[in-house]
Write a structure and sequence with these properties.
By secondary structure, this protein is mainly α. Helices cover 75% and strands 0% of the residues. The chain has helices at residues 3-36, 43-76. Helix 1 runs antiparallel to helix 2 (43-76). It starts with a helix and ends in a 15-residue tail after the last helix.
């Protein structure tokens, strides 16, 4: 396999990992929110908690994804096997 194909496969795998992390954090957040809130809780409070769960899942998945990718890249030295995403200026 060449470097460009390795890069494409890495990006596809990374995207799948990011989506899985986001869904996992979202489901855990919904479970915790359901445990904390009661059926008698205010509808506005439930909406705010739901929006906070969405925001936390997006930010949390990005944070975990970046940590995992840095760890994997450093552990197996993937920069040698991948094409650079952005090339330098050509003069």
């Amino acid at each position: 396999m060449n470097k460009k194909l390795n890069t494409v496969l890495f990006m596809i795998g990374g995207t799948i990992l990011n989506i899985v992390l986001m869904v996992l954090i979202f489901v855990i957040g919904l479970f915790l929110g359901n445990q904390i809130l009661t059926p008698e809780s205010d509808a506005n409070l439930k909406t705010v908690v739901f929006l906070a769960i969405i925001g936390i899942s997006v930010v949390g998945s990005f944070f975990l994804y970046s940590k995992i990718i840095k760890f994997i890249t450093n552990k197996w030295n993937l920069e040698d096997y991948m094409h650079p995403f952005f090339s330098g200026k050509k003069r």
